[in-house]
Amino acid sequence: MRDLAVxxxxxxxxxxxLAMLLVLGGLLAARWAVSIMRVARGRxxxxxxxxxxxxxxxxxxxxxxxxxxxxxxEADLRWVAQSRGYGLVKHPFAKFYExxxxxxxx
Length: 106
What we know:
With 106 residues, the chain is α+β, with helices and mostly antiparallel strands. Helices cover 53% and strands 16% of the residues. A hairpin with a 4-residue loop joins strand 2 and strand 3 (96-101). The chain is elongated and about 70 Å long.
């Protein structure tokens, strides 16, 4: 009689599955952490959110931000953008705001 357990040395497959599960779990946990941080930023006081937006509008041609990061009114976002020489474009399907530098504005 032959012992079949002697001829089967397949310890690599379970280790690969375990490693894959750990990596995917880590990626999922990181995604949740980023989402929680974005929602928390949206609940900050209005003045803090607007100053954070003004700091991001630093002269680059385009700046994109997720809508969940800012819990202030769109009129406030537009006011800050115009004061910095930007125009505001809202992308409702993709859920982000895009700030585009307007030529001829300071």
